[in-house]
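Changelog note: in this version the structure field was regenerated for every chain. One regenerated record is shown below for reference.
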Amino acid sequence: MSAAARIKTIVANLLFAAGLPVLILVAWNALAKKPDEAVGAEKFYPDPVTVGRAFADNWIGPAFAHEVLPSLYRLGIGIVVSIVAGVAAGTVIGLLPWLRELTEPVLEFFRAIPPPALIPIVMLLLGITDTMKIAVIVSGAVWPILLNTIDGVRATDSIMTETADAFRITRWQRLWYLVLPAASPRIMTGVRTGLSVALILMVISEMFASSSGLGYRIVYFQRNFLIAESWSGIVLLGLTGVLLAAIFGFAERRILRWYHGMLEVERG
């Protein structure tokens, strides 16, 4: 493919990706400007320009370091702890049938408890600290990673397992070169779900007795009827989700390069 053709393809992809956001902004602007006799549309449904100004005033500059970075720090720590704990525990449980049967009722019980319901208990145990907020994030984000890891480890190909036994592959070699690669597609599926849950719980944990963070600022704006500022916080959360999805997509393509290549071969 020539350089001109590559540039043309890149431009076409960018235009295609930007098409829907542009349409959403146009529709948003039209609805915000639509007159409403019962409720002031401009006050409660500000147009994109007003929200953009509020975004620049409240989130760009010192506020980013004071409010956004601490939230991202807690979110990052919570995600890392959830991945490490979920993959480690899920691998052990998946490899040991007796342990899987023993822990299954307990796992189903705790998975059914909504993490926000645990916030008052966690606050009493850990206090109103960053550790409490991280614990809330982990309490919800770890479950999809843990359960998908268990399913992935259980689904390891039996023929490959028997081959490893025949060649007397050591336990650690089997874990590193057979079990974890075989389970990695499902592990990454669990991580994708865990990221979304972690972002939600990050906001919820900061809405309770907190004095900083994205969740705290959004609640502060809502309680003081700062509508445009509240919308700007929601937009920032959406952009954070897009950034997490982009980072995850980049990592997934690198980690599961062999898996996607195998799928392409099967389709071809």
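Spot check on this record: The mean pLDDT is 84. The first helix runs from residue 3 to 33.
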